[in-house]
Amino acid sequence: MSLPALLIYSFLYLYPSIQNLLYSFTRWDGVTKPQYIGFRNFTYMLSNDVLFRKILGNNIKFTLFVVIFQTAFSLIFAIFLAKNSKGNIFFRTLFFFPTILSSVSVGLMWTFLYNPNYGFLNAAFKAIGLDNLAVNWLGDSRYSLLAVAITQVWFHTGQMVVIYVAGLQQIPQELYEAAEVDGATRWQQFKSVTWPMALPTTAVVVAYTTIQSFRAFDLIYSMTQGGPLNSSDLLVTNIFNLAFVGYKFGYAAAQTIFLVIMILLITWLQRRTLKIDYGVKS
Amino acid sequence: MIFNFSRRLLLSIFAIAVIIPTSIVVLGTFKSDFEIYSKPLALPKSFSFNNLKALFDTGNISTPFKNSVIVSIGSVFFTLLFATLAAYAISRMFNITGKVLFFLFSLGLAIPGQVNIVPIYTLFVKLHLTNSLIGLILVNIALNLPLSIFILTAFLKDLPKEMFEVASIDGAGHWRVYRSIALPLARPAVGATAIFLFVICWNDLLYPLMLINEQSKKTLPLTLIDFRGEFATSYSMLFTAIMVASVPMVVMYLFMQKQFQSGLTAGAVKG
């Protein structure tokens, strides 16, 4: 009964994954025969490729920004909205709304907001006297990565709020009651009840946000296409360009191998530091 | 006091941050470019559907819309069919085969599907599956099977075994048990999976971008990207196109908020 799934999966997932690994040891333009070159793609990538280093740096900055702000915002909002009152459900529904939109729609929408000439954001900044915040968000290599990261946080915070609310609702109410009897302040309650009890959820949120931020191809592509001057390029967009603009199929494959190893390493590290196996919970 | 004040303040700020861009797009579909640039948040002079009409006349958005519907429904249907079959088989197999199968599919959770763009592209060129909606459906099925199987298997394994055993004793074969017991019982999980699959397939850009370049086979996200170039200065057209592309999701979300929220987070929590 699992035959159809197994066939498609093996043929279009496992087999390409293995092929990808093999390609990563070749120089290949996608047309002529791949040429085996051993570990040269990897040594070049890690020691000589200045662009790769820049983009890896971008990706790390992007991921850190998104993980920190998205996790913090969603935890704060989830604490505010944990009870199932009508108003809270309304806010959760509203905050979650961007999640159902496509990255392309969100990207294009924000391209308008960020537009330096007639965009809404700069007009608003100027209206409240913050003229020096009215910069060319997407067109200036100093701000483009930040601009895209802000959009990503806007895009997915609501989704994380829903995950956090589910986690917070699992915390036994008695713990809060006991804390209150002991005269604990709200901050003390957060520190000794909410935060430790919500750690498993935090692990899920952080891991998922990290992976999402490594997959943000659609958003980058629709907002900046990695520009200007690769200032908002991430590993995925660079891999796409290497393969389909530069026809460096072998090198692109090598970078995907790097990406996979990095994602696995990060998720493993996060699981270890947060000390939870959340496969069991849900 | 301070808590309630900051609660209200922060919630309002984020609510406004969601409402403003959305309103600009929705209102923009009724406005001229000049109105959008000068007063993005003002109500339109008149609620006319001129943009929409112009978009369908010149922008040709009906073909991409149709393609997106075909690809999304096809992908969701076949992914669910194959995934429920596999999940049922895995959850009823208590021997080594079941474990091996489960392990194989779990590998797909560790390797993000996006990394296989090079081999998938070359394979599809060889098989003449580029510029084909069926090709897109096949990719979607393969990419989404691991997570779907993972979620459905977890759900089926949690069901009481007795329900299946009783049916087996009564002489029902595997097909019968799958159809009349497993599937109906798994409806919440199937529904949640269907929603997240639908959202993923409807919104995907990467694989269409890579596999499709014929105008007649383009999906909505791909067409939106084209519009950005075409209507570089015409946000009224762009916003109208965004509306057309988002309306099916938004309408479904309005009617099934709970299911969307649990469906789209199930992927995160289980994965």
Distinctive features:
heterodimer, A: 282 residues, mainly alpha, MetI-like fold, two-stranded antiparallel ribbon, 13 helices, 70% helix, disordered C terminus, B: 271 residues, 14 helices, globular
Question: What do these coordinates show?
Answer:
The complex is a heterodimer of chains A (282) and B (271). With 282 residues, chain A is an all-alpha fold. Chain A has a single domain, classed as MetI-like (MetI-like fold, Orthogonal Bundle). Chain A is 70% helix and 1% strand. Chain A has 13 helices and two strands, in the order H-E-E-H-H-H-H-H-H-H-H-H-H-H-H. Chain A has a two-stranded antiparallel sheet with strand order 1-2. In chain A, strand 1 and strand 2 form a beta hairpin. In chain A, helix 12 packs antiparallel against helix 13. Chain B is mostly helical and 271 residues long. Chain B is 79% helix and 0% strand. Chain B is built from 14 helices and no strands. Chain B has helices at residues 2-28, 33-38, 50-59, 62-92, 96-110, 117-126, 133-158, 161-169, 174-185, 187-203, 206-211, 220-230, 235-255, 257-270. In chain B, helix 7 packs antiparallel against helix 10, helix 10 packs across helix 14 and helix 12 runs antiparallel to helix 13. The two termini of chain B are 39 Å apart. The relative contact order of chain B is 0.13.
Strand segment count of chain A: 2
- Please mark out the parts of chain B with pLDDT under 50 across 5 or more consecutive residues, or reply none: none
Mean pLDDT of chain B: 88
Question: Beta-sheet strand percentage of chain B?
Answer: under 5%
CATH A-level architecture of chain A: Orthogonal Bundle
How many strands, what sense, and barrel or not for the largest sheet of chain B?
none
CATH superfamily membership of chain B, which one?
A: MetI-like
Tally the beta strands of chain B.
0
- Per the CATH scheme, the topology name of chain A is MetI-like fold
Please provide the ordered H/E string of secondary-structure elements of chain B. HHHHHHHHHHHHHH
Would you identify the CATH architecture of chain B? Orthogonal Bundle
Oligomer: heterodimer
Principal-axes shape call of chain B = globular
What average pLDDT do the residues of chain A reach? Answer: 90
Low-pLDDT windows of residues of chain A:
277-282
Approximate strand percentage of chain A = under 5%
| Total DSSP helices of chain A | 13
Helical content of chain A (DSSP H or I, runs of 4+): over 70%
